[in-house]
Amino acid sequence: MFFNLKLHEDEPIYIQVYGYLKEIIENGMLSKDSKLPSTREMASMIDVSRTTIVKAYELLEDNNLVYTIKGRGTFVSKVPVVKQSEWEINWENNITNYAKMSEKLDIMKHEKLYKKGMISFKSIAPDESLFDVEEVKRAFLNRISIEGEKLLNYGYAKGYKPLIDFIMEYMREKGVNTKGKDLIITNGFTEGFDIVLSSIVQKGDNIICENPTHNTAIKLMKLHQLSIIGIDIDEDGIDLEKIKNALKHNPIKAAYLIPSYHNPTGMVMSYEKMENVYNLLKKHKVPIVEDGFNEELQHLGSHIAPIATICGEENSVIYWKFIKNFIPRNENRMGIWRQETYRCA
Ligand SMILES: Cc1ncc(COP(=O)(O)O)c(C=O)c1O
Predict the structure, then answer these.
(1) How far apart are CA 278 and CA 316, in angstroms?
(2) Distance from the CA of 186 to the center of ligand 1, in angstroms?
(3) DSSP string covering 273-328, please?
(4) Which of 214, 323, 334 to mutate to test the pocket of ligand 1 (most atoms within 8 A of CB)?
(5) What's the gap in Å between 281 CA and the centre of ligand 1?
(6) How many Å apart are CA 90 and CA 125, to the nearest integer?
(7) pLDDT digit string, tens, across residues 167-215
């Protein structure tokens, strides 16, 4: 910034230095209490004598633009920032239809505002008192002790490598054949599903999903301008006959399914139904985007296997599980939902 000062011969140099610094201070480019370069540094930066800079700084101080602390340097005073202009963008007219639609489809923004004492069923945030904060602190300290500064730097673009390796192993233990499969860490469902949709479907493509389904999934599918074919579900999952019917009449690009602890119904698809759904979609070459977000919520016995275990070495299931199960014991989810919010057709 100080290098930008262009000197000319029409005015004494200390006046020019003073004028330049005054302007950037009054425009808010140097914030209150920020330190100016020492007179020696400034003189060498703009290639003038130190006496010239001392005179310029004295003038700034006389005009209450800076103050000096003996032995520490010269600092910017509290100066009212001169407003540049009254220009204001009318964002209402300047944002894209995509942004407008995102806002419109966001149920959090349009439902009743939270009031103290209210129990909201529109999202499934667990009770914070159940989080094991001490364990999380311990884990963080362990990791930073092992990795040191490396942990704070840019990392592997796909996500933290030890976490990827851990999840890969975890999936193998669940029975998923990970041969030839890959994994990326995302910031949650919205980012993950958006990446998947951007990669495998295009505007106008048909996509099958359970009806009702997860509201954020509906939002994203609509934002990608997909034609959503909602298939009714019963107690053990999506209706096979209705999938067959949809497949008969439309070319389907993908199927988005939540087989375990389906949101919003809580339904768990039977293993037999999972196999039938998988084989039917395989026959019609429809890849499955499987959302196993809450698979570990089992109270008794072992976890429910995902459809991803059925596909073996085949590559037609894109599976995800976001780190919901990072926080244990969050089983206190309630099965109440607003029909119209979650219905996709
Ligand atoms: C069906 C479904 N998938 C995924 C998620 C995970 O979302 P997030 O990663 O944003 O927590 C949720 C959260 O409610 C969900 O209901």
Answers:
(1) 9
(2) 12
(3) HHHHHHHHHHHTT--EEEE-TTGGG-SSSSPPPPHHHHTTT---EEEE--GGGGS-
(4) 214
(5) 24
(6) 35
(7) 889 889 988 898 888 888 888 888 889 999 999 999 999 999 999 999 9
Pocket of ligand 1 (CB under 6 A): 124, 188-190, 214, 258, 263, 291, 293, 322, 324
Q: pTM score, two decimals?
A: 0.78
Alpha helices in the chain (DSSP H): 13-26, 39-46, 50-62, 91-94, 97-105, 107-110, 133-147, 161-173, 189-200, 215-223, 240-249, 271-283, 307-310, 339-342
User: Residue 74 is encoded by which pair of tokens?
Assistant: 């010269």
Rounded CA separation 274/254 (Å): 16
Question: How far is residue 34's CA from residue 22's CA, in Å, rounded to a whole number?
Answer: 14
Query: Strand, coil or helix: what is 230?
Result: strand
CA angle 188, 193, 198 (to 5 degrees): 135
What Å distances lie between residue 250 and 29, 199, 221, 255, CA to CA?
Answer: 60, 21, 17, 13
Q: Which two tokens stand for residue 226?
A: 């997909």
* Closest to 293 (Cα-Cα) out of 337, 256, 335, 263: 263
